[in-house]
Structure to design on (579 residues):
RNA sequence: GCUGGCGUAGCUUAGUGGUAAAGCACCACUUUGGUAAAGUGGAGAGCGCGAGUUCAAUCCUCGCCGCCAGCUCCA
């Protein structure tokens, strides 16, 4: 921590969160002027802007937002000073007696904490503070959308109307933010999934269920192969378990009592109740349990691309990143307590290897602890902490965010344009071995309880693929691209040669197509560029004569004529380097 | 699920209380063309689904479904 000089303290640089919090006050001020019947509740700064929740029976329309925005600009231009004063709890409650939300907040401020009111112009709000000095500090402000939000996030509370907006110190920063949003929209995997013909969700089949098209399935296969290679090297054993099993399995595992809301309902057959598999662990446990194990067998690492089904609320579904049926790159490790630490560290290394191969960076680690702690949680959490510390990785804590069977480590990462995603998770579990009475024979001749590690490194193939699409913006590197190169003949006189080039490259295992369409060269080039194919190989009269191809590499201006073998070597090198 | 918005050919959009228009994509033909869209022609939706109002509904009303932005949750 740096100590501020007195000068810096009197003129602190405007904190962007303070600026946006101030903008939220300005919004509430504007709402007070234009819609006096609306009751302000809370209005914090958030990652990319701010929001303010209002209680009002009439919905705010887009036209209302425009009027509010105009009024906000006036308030900003007036450059009202933000003045705060400390009041007693009674005074605060009295000041907001017509607003039950503010009263509730005032009542709940802990004894001893200051209760403060902040005023700009004619608007006073109950607020803990953290503002710019005056409204004039806001260089650019805009309102973005209205959405419903429950008071304090609880669905049995009244629904409020949340107005989202953002604010910056300068107009330039706002423009840059818009440019960022445009870039993000261009990378939207739902858009690119359709444009590049990778997958779709079908209304007839239901939301959140993914139909992988040939190109998408091909890419998924490449990712899966990469993961499989890593698993084999690290001694994981492949297993395959059923998608529908008797409900009793999940009663025993505890999923039915802890997880029922997320499970699809029972399927009745011959008076017996079956369930779609929501998690792979119970299945892997049954395989473990089917044999007697010695400590010499451990650690035992079972892996499966396990497809699971979870009932997510319809409103939460989103492209590939929030679905109802998905395949985890799942594995369960059964080990002795002594092995736990080392095994955990290895999974962490493997997770990093995977994320690194796809060019992700900015990893963040979160230790989620279990809400209902048991006697083994200290050991489990220690294993996670020690693993992180042994690799010198800083981490945050998410109290109570763990699985019902134990604490977990979540790995967040940043994509190419700096957005955060949560993919991999590694979890320590002393509970399921207990519930299923798992055991192994120790060196002492006695039975012991193994520890389990649950881990999914990519997370789910669906979400991982969605994130990959956005990370690369559809410009997949050659090793991943469903079509690595298209051979484009200039006229049909070179069509036979084009097929010859294609077959030669295909024989080396590359994914190559020929454009045999009756179109002009410019059209064909444009078409394949929009399809984001890494290489377009143009063959005309001169290439045919020299047995060469004219290489047009994606996002490289310069074109070059090389022989087919030279191109094959170049492509092979890229694929080997995973570029 | 809840709040708000939306739902017209594969995609993007136009349109009207009297049974729908365009561009791209698709198919055929002409053209054999050297680096981001050649020309002509053709086929394709009955306007998400259902009910109501009306002489008449894609356009009005209601319900359902789906999508989008959030709330919530998480791989």
């Amino acid at each position: 921590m740096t100590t501020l000089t007195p000068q810096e303290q009197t003129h602190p640089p405007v904190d962007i969160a303070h600026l946006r919090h101030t903008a939220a006050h300005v919004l509430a001020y504007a709402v007070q002027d234009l819609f006096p019947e609306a009751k302000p509740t809370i209005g914090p700064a958030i990652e990319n802007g701010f929001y303010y929740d209002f209680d009002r029976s009439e919905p705010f329309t887009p036209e209302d937002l425009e009027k509010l925005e105009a009024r906000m600009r006036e308030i900003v231009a007036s450059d009202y000073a933000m003045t705060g004063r400390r009041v007693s709890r009674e005074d605060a409650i009295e000041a907001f007696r017509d607003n039950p939300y503010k009263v509730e907040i005032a009542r709940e401020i802990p004894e001893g904490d200051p209760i403060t009111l902040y005023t700009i112009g004619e608007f006073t709000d109950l607020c803990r503070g953290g503002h710019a000095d005056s409204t004039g500090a806001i260089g650019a402000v805009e309102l973005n959308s209205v959405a419903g939000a429950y008071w304090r996030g609880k669905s049995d509370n009244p629904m409020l109307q949340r107005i989202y907006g953002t604010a910056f110190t300068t107009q330039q920063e706002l423009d840059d933010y818009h440019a960022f949003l445009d870039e993000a929209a261009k990378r939207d995997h739902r858009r690119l999934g359709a444009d590049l013909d990778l997958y779709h969700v079908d209304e007839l089949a239901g939301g959140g269920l993914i139909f992988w098209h040939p190109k998408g399935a091909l890419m998924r296969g490449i990712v899966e192969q990469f993961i499989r290679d890593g698993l084999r090297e690290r001694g994981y054993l492949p297993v395959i378990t059923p998608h529908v099993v008797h409900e009793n399995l999940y009663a025993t595992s505890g999923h039915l009592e802890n997880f029922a809301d997320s499970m699809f309902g029972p399927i009745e057959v011959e008076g017996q109740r079956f369930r779609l598999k929501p998690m792979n662990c119970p299945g892997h446990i049954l395989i473990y349990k089917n044999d007697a194990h010695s400590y010499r067998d451990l650690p035992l690492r079972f892996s499966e691309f396990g497809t699971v089904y979870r009932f997510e609320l319809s409103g939460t579904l989103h492209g590939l990143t929030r679905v109802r049926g998905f395949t985890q790159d799942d594995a369960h490790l059964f080990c002795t307590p002594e092995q736990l630490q080392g095994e955990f560290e290895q999974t962490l290394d493997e997770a990093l290897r995977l994320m690194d191969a796809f060019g992700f960076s900015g990893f963040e680690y979160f230790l989620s602890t279990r809400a209902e702690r048991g006697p083994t949680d200290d050991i489990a959490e220690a294993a996670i902490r020690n693993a992180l510390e042994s690799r010198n990785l800083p981490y945050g804590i998410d109290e109570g965010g763990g699985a019902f069977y134990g604490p977990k480590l979540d790995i967040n990462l940043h994509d190419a344009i700096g957005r955060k995603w949560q993919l991999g998770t590694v979890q320590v579990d002393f509970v399921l071995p207990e519930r299923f009475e798992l055991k192994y024979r120790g060196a002492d001749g006695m039975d012991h309880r193994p520890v389990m590690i649950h881990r999914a490194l990519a997370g789910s193939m669906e979400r991982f693929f969605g994130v990959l699409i956005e990370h690369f913006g559809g410009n997949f590197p050659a090793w991943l691209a469903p079509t690595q190169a298209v051979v484009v003949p200039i006229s049909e006189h070179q069509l036979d040669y084009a097929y010859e080039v294609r077959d030669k490259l295909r024989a080396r295992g590359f994914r190559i197509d020929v454009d045999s369409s009756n179109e002009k060269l410019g059209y064909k080039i444009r078409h394949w560029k929009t399809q984001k194919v890494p290489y377009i190989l143009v063959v005309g009269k001169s290439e045919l004569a020299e047995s060469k191809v004219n290489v047009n590499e994606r996002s490289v201006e310069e074109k070059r004529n090389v022989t087919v073998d030279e191109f094959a070597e170049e492509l092979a090198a890229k694929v080997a380097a995973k570029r």
In short: Chain A has a mean pLDDT of 89. The radius of gyration of chain A is 29 Å. The CA atoms of residues 5 and 207 of chain A lie 57 Å apart.
